[in-house]
Structure to design on (306 residues):
């Protein structure tokens, strides 16, 4: 089920939490939704799930506008602060959630069993939720979000409290589910976004400031390229001054160990060619030239620090 957001805005008093944003998520796509604290991520997700009404704009799920249709049955939502009934055993809680979501009575038990296996809760299923670790509580939250097999999954920090092994398991589960669903995944763990998501949206101060695949965002950021260069054959200050004069070079620094030149440039590919030709012409020995790929963390900082 596709998600289409058009001109969405939401204010709290005089503060604009979401400011006229538009984007779409296709069926089978996992979109990472990133932004600093207070950027508008959670407000946006709450509007998509119909927990909050927008001030303006449209949310269209599977061709139906949410302002005219109740679409909650098509959405699975795991909020950032996972609300659970601590005194209920896991299996009873999931049966309760299944009934709330309108699963036919004769199918609830089977669906609960599927979720217990899928979310790795078999050894914990008869325990009270209050007895579970934070990681297992998060798994219960995922299970309740998915129990009615929704076409859309909205996951706000789904791996909070999980250890590295559990994160990999949940990440694999999300990717498996994402083949047939539209998934919006919010997290602060940037390597997880790269490993899980097909596309990334970055929101800052209520506005979308970046939208693309991890590779496309790196290409957009490649205008600020960086090369690590090691050259012998002349005094280092002469090499540094000569590199600084190359077209497209915007700055020269030294690596932390002072062994390599850090060449900042507008185009890594073109500058690489220029450095190579320079070394040939000067009869210098080029020992190393390594382009440093823009990291998602750097891209995130660049678009959210304004």
């Amino acid at each position: 089920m596709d998600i289409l957001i058009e001109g969405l805005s939401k204010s709290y008093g005089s503060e604009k939490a979401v400011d006229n944003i538009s984007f779409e998520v296709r069926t089978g796509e996992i979109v990472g939704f990133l932004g600093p604290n207070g950027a508008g991520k959670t407000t946006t997700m709450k509007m998509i799930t119909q927990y909050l009404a927008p001030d303006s704009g449209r949310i269209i799920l599977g061709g139906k506008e949410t302002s005219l249709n109740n679409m909650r049955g098509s959405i699975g939502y795991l909020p950032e602060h996972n609300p659970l009934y601590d005194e209920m055993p896991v299996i009873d809680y999931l049966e309760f959630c299944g009934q709330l979501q309108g699963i036919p009575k004769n199918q609830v038990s089977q669906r609960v069993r599927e979720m217990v296996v899928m979310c790795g809760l078999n050894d914990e299923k008869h325990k009270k939720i209050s007895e579970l670790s934070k990681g297992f509580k998060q798994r219960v939250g995922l299970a309740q979000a998915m129990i009615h097999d929704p076409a859309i999954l909205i996951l706000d920090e789904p791996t909070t409290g999980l250890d590295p092994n559990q994160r990999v398991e949940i990440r694999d589960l999300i990717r498996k589910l994402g083949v047939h669903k539209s998934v919006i995944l919010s997290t602060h763990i940037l390597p997880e976004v790269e490993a899980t998501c097909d596309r990334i949206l970055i929101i800052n101060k209520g506005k979308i400031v970046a939208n693309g695949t991890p590779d496309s965002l790196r290409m957009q950021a490649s205008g600020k390229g960086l090369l690590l260069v090691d050259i012998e054959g002349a005094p280092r200050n002469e090499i540094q001054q000569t590199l600084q004069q190359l077209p497209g070079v915007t700055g020269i620094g030294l690596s932390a160990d002072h062994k390599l030149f850090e060449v900042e440039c507008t185009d890594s590919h073109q500058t690489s060619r220029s450095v190579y030709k320079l070394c040939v012409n000067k009869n210098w020995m080029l020992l190393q030239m390594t382009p440093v790929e823009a990291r998602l963390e750097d891209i995130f900082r660049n678009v959210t620090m304004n």
Observations:
- The first helix runs from residue 41 to 48.
- The chain has two domains: 3-212, 220-304.
- The two ends are 35 Å apart (CA to CA).
